[in-house]
Amino acid sequence: MIKHIVTPLSKEVVESLSCGDSVTLTGYIYTARDAAHKRLCGLIEAGKELPFDIKDQVIFFAGPAPAKPRRPIGSVGPTTSYRMDAYSPLLIRNGLAGMIGKGSRGAAVVDAMKDCEAVYFCAIGGCAALLAKCVKSSETVCYEDLGTEAVRKLYVEDMPLTVAIDCRGDDIYQKGKKDYLDTIKEKQDGLR
Amino acid sequence: MREIDSSVIERTVERLCIKANCVLPDDVRTCIERAAKAEPYEPARVILRQIIENYKIAEEESVPICQDTGAACVFLEIGQDVHVNGSIEEAVNRGVAAGYTKGYLRASMVADPLTRVNTGDDTPAFIYYDLVPGDRIKITVAPKGYGSENMSRIKMLKPSDGVEGIIDFVMETVLKAGPNPCPPIVVGVGIGGNFDKAALMAKKALLRPLDQPPADDIYGELEQKLLEMINSTGMGPQGFGGRTYALAVNIEHCATHIAGLPAAVNINCHVTRHCSEVL
Asked: What's the pTM value of the predicted model, to 2 decimals?
């Protein structure tokens, strides 16, 4: 069953999500990747205000391709999340509720997610033409000088995601592999 | 001696950059579609079907398959009986700049690894030159994403480590990569040579068509053995569980020193892009 969720993410929604859930997400999300994360965390560390309010918001680790004429955005999909591991805990502890990326996360990120009730979603890496169809509008919020790495506010409709790590720290990379290997073993045992 | 103007190289590179990023090669499609049919785990099949839908949309709408349109790797096989008027390097870079700009492809290169300012047109390309007999020039453009590039490794093994040492190193590399390089992946392996030659062979191994039968030798056997071992880990597409973690293992090998057994693994994602033209 697919759960439909909207941003900003309430605590109730975050708590209701479990690793492995398929969800579709609708609402505003913000793109940020390596260079933008460095600047955002630099501002927090310097005690300055962020260019957008991250409370209960979702950051999409992504740098889109340029938009063709009359399109809101070019192809856009998740970049590998572990490169943001150095920055995500600080953002989570300052109110960020969700992240969209691909791949595994470090222990410090998962700890912050458990402490502050945040969720980590995965979109399918390399499916950027498909994911771009969910993006209905895009505007640059800040860091235009970074090109594709600028922070953009996207309005997405029914973006297909999987809950990869939930706010209890359960992880699809362990669960999915185990489920599959158990399934295979059952089939093999059945044949014996 | 045959003469080719560098502007011909420029226009060819421009065209190849756009095509490579928007149209997945047939051999990769065949491999993904075969894997989707053979995949025993339904959640993994769902992912593979989305991957197939994605590259179909990209081709129909002429948009990039992946937003990471890569570092432009340009392989030139230059016949020794051809003379190029003008700078080849400049022509390739002008072609990449034009292709990435006109094709709405993402500019992903920074001019300096530490100061990190984007060059704005995906230049400079990584250019690989081979001198070959004849008077033709073969140009291959293979945009390489860095989600998978970052998971690549090299190791200087000892001769006594043998084939078991190679297997352990490839498996360790793949298990470390886990869900990060956008599986299902293609595993390029270079065995032998020296430090840099091993890495180059691993990269060139990724250009080899995926739908060919394995060679009838120890390397063909090793490719099949490694593919089976990798797909038995249970990591599956995207690392969410399943059989299809790798589409293929391609090994290139060459002579090496009596003291050495270098091995390199260059990982590519399911968007294994390459296309060529012969001038």
From this structure: 0.94
